[in-house]
Amino acid sequence: MSNTFLGMPSLPVFGRGNLNATEPFPQAAHRELANTQLRANLGHATHTIRYKRLKVVAELPDWEQMRDAGSAIKDATMANLPAMLEQFEANFTARGGIIHWARDAQEANEIVTALIQETGETEVVKVKSMATQEIGLNEYLEDQGIAAYETDLAELIVQLDHDKPSHILVPAIHKNRSQVREIFLREMPAVDPNLTDEPARLAEAARKHLRKKFLSAKVAISGANFGLADTGTLTVVESEGNGRMCLTLPETLITVMGIEKLLPSWSDLEVFMQLLPRSSTGERMNPYTSLWTGVTEGDGPQNVHLVMLDNGRTAALADEYGRTALNCIRCSACMNVCPVYERTGGHAYGSTYPGPIGAILSPLMTGIKSEENNSLPYASSLCGACFDACPVKINIPEILVHLRGEDVDSQRAKVKVPSQMDFMMKGAEWAFSSGAKLNLLEKGLPLGKLAAGRDKVIKKLPGIAGGWTQSRDIPAPPSQSFRQWWAKEHKPSTAVVPGNAVPGHAGPGNTAGHGTENSEGEQA
Amino acid sequence: MSAREDIMARIASALHDAPETPVVPREYRRSSNMSAEQRLEQLVDRLQDYKANVFVTPAEEASAKLAELLAGSTSIVVPHGLPQDWLSKLTDDAGMPAIEVDSPERRLTVAELDALDAVVTAAATAVSETGTIMLDGSADQGRRIISLVPDRHIVLLRASDIVEVLPEAIARLEATRPQTWISGPSATSDIELERVEGVHGPRTLDVIILT
Ligand code: SF4
Fold first, then answer.
1. Where are the domains of chain B?
2. How far apart are the first and last CA of chain B?
3. Could you tell me the fold of the domain covering B37-210?
4. What one-character-per-residue DSSP string does A380-394 give?
């Protein structure tokens, strides 16, 4: 088929699966914030990783040049995605791999299930993968009578605890060592009852628990960090060796990868394999990286499948201001530096993708009109730390603002009756339209002072403005405004000499605050 | 329409504004300006940082070093293309471990590999800046499975195969070979982001650098 685009752009098709929050962010955040243990665990973990990342990044004299290259390589990939996908497909297939395409989560789950059923197996081992998390594969397989065992330590902790991941790199970041110990003692059959909470002992317990599973597994499921178009090579980056086990020992390997994970060429890996480990775990290099291209006779799985997943990625691609969110390499640096994430944790975001990247990626993939996700773009103070940390320079704050705009537009389109916000904005429009009107309004300031009472603070504002006072007080307004004060201090006789204007005072004819309709150059 | 056609059409539609393809600036370091000694020193430092055991040994003493490290082991596996002279001390001397050779004619099973003490392989190349050793499945490195299942991995690396930066290694490697890049023994940082060595991959990594 041809990829030449001829007609009108069709409407984007959004993604489904674990991309939606089950409740609005402010509500979820409220609950999570009350969990002091969670906040302590997260504070400790994010601070540790931030420091490590800064240290290894500072080691490289060409870090910024690498980021520039990474960002451009990804932009180039997206601009030529159809050609990249075709090239990748041809190369991967030529070497014995089989490619399947999935429009959405449901289709991907069905494909994977059918592939497993063909082998006759009812158990599979899994390497940590965001894509399979996103499509809810484990739950789907369980319904089909297939048990999927997570093998990454953190995923194992989460799975054993029947919990949900809260971080894309360290899904159990919200658990501390003694909580992990309790989970192991409770859920691992044949665990040593004298297990201590030393991380090394806990890792050993996981090794024992999974060893037999690895050595006997017939089917493995993985994600992929990168797919290289010019060679058809797939890459998995990991630490523990569970990835190597899954990618090497079983007869059948099924990989689920988002269509945006491609890089144009093998040599681009030299950029990304420097950017990724330093940004994610703060290491110079992760312990293990596996690369495979289709099937290699006698070495590794002989039935190699790849499911190429859309599930809303093309919808994100269609947003020209938001599409760079697809450049994300899931390093998690943005969440590790985010002041909001540090306090609320990953669960508050609802979606598989938490933190700053989740706040843009989830609504881009599901559409901002999706009720649950329209609060996500507000889960940020726009401080910009995520942008500075991002190895591929995704301008997250800019996309957040863009999505807030989209949300406001979509709300306005929905609501026929003017909202409180509309009234407030109308009022502001009236007040700020002329100095005279503003003057009139400012005469009311002493009233505010009265409302604040003796302690000189306003504790509760009415209506939607009440959100502002939910977690803070407002100091009482002064008895006069700056403009009133200025007018008093600068009688006409003391007006600035024309041609000798001070900043903020545009010059002749502008006697601020004197009731003229001239609002130009007004800075007061 | 097939799913593939559907997705391709969605992409074409999404790119209706025909975004331009930027020229990729490659201003980062793509070659080394370190001497061979500096690269060796840097690699040793990085590997030790990962808690690997590192030995710098003259090439002619490879076999003696290997025999020393394997004293006390009962059985090991080697890929069929491992240089014979590296093993000479192991085969000649009594009290040395039994050597299983994994070859296309006789591939060891998972259970057999799991019963062995160690694996000895060569390496394709190594990056000193990141402390990374690359295996590419050549005859002296063997199938991926043999360097994975045994709990101890001994790598013999020729000092002349050490490069400084990753781009140099990428230029030397062939993408389509099955590869494993190794930076230290298996490790995890999943509990409170504290790195601990030794999970599912080999828990001991010994690197003999041959000068
Ligand atoms: S947005 Fe950037 S910093 Fe955040 S996970 Fe993705 S690549 Fe990393």
1. 37-210
2. 61
3. Rossmann fold (3.40.50)
4. -----HHHHH-TT--
Q: Is A294 in the pocket of ligand 1 (CB under 6 A)?
A: no
Residue A271 lies in a domain: yes
Q: What pLDDT is attached to residue A499?
A: 46
* pLDDT over 90 at A468, yes or no: no
Q: Is the pLDDT of residue A398 over 80?
A: yes
ipTM of the complex: 0.96
CA–centroid distance, A75 to ligand 1, in Å, is: 15
Number of domains in chain A: 2
pLDDT given for residue B82 in this prediction: 97
Residue A195 lies in a domain: yes
Do residue A311 and residue A456 come from a single domain?
no
Q: What is the CATH number of the domain that holds A252?
A: 3.40.50.10420
Q: What is the DSSP string of A61-129?
A: TTHHHHHHHHHHHHHHHHHTHHHHHHHHHHHHHHTT-EEEEESSHHHHHHHHHHHHHHHT-SEEEE---
pLDDT in tens, A12-43: 888 887 877 667 787 777 777 777 777 888 88
The reply to whether ligand 1 has any atom less than 6 angstroms from the CB of A160 is no
Per-chain mean pLDDT for chain A: 85
| pLDDT(A410) > 50 | yes
Angstroms from B178 CA to nearest CA on chain A: 5
Nearest CA to ligand 1 atom 6: A328
> Does A278 sit in the ligand 1 pocket, CB within 6 Å?
no
